[in-house]
Amino acid sequence: MISKEELYAFINKQQICVLSTVNSGNKPESAAMAFSVTEGLEIIFSVNFESRKLRNIELNNNVSIVFGWDMDDFITVQYEGVIERIENDLEKYQEIHFDKNPDSKKFKDLPGNTYLKVTPKWIRYSDLKNKIIEENKY
């Protein structure tokens, strides 16, 4: 069974993920995003107030994310969770985000920039090369 630490290590080594939200017309919308992850498997994003993602999240805060698509390893993680604006401990989450994405620091004080955190509800780890598929509920 894959441990939380192994999931963290796999997710953390990825540079980009795909975040999917649902718009007001109940249609899915996806975006490739830079992100960071906490040891508790919370995912952190920075977005602009004018983004489609933020409008969608305000209507429906359930999201899905996909990490990994390395064709050598055949490993992916599917992740479903609830997303919210970071109100408390913002500096702590920014530090985690900037450690992984130092270029994001230049947008820190940009008007309209906000930080979001996803708390996991369901994760599926798939290692197709070794025929391992594991689901975890949180």
How would you characterize the overall build of this protein?
- The chain has 138 residues and is α+β, with helices and mostly antiparallel strands.
- The chain contains three helices and eight strands; from the N terminus they run αββββαββαββ.
- A hairpin with a 4-residue loop joins strand 5 and strand 6 (75-85).
- The longest helix is centred in the last third of the chain and has 11 residues, at 90-100.
- The two termini are 15 Å apart.
Task: Output the keywords.
138 residues; Pnp Oxidase, Chain A; eight-stranded antiparallel sheet; 46% strand
Quantity of strands, as a count: 8
What is Rg? 15 Å
Query: Helical content, roughly?
Result: 10-25%
- Give the H and E element order: HEEEEHEEHEE
Low-confidence stretches: none
Q: Sheet bearing the most strands, described?
A: 8 strands, antiparallel
Amino- and carboxy-terminal Cα gap:
15 Å
Please, what is the average pLDDT?
93
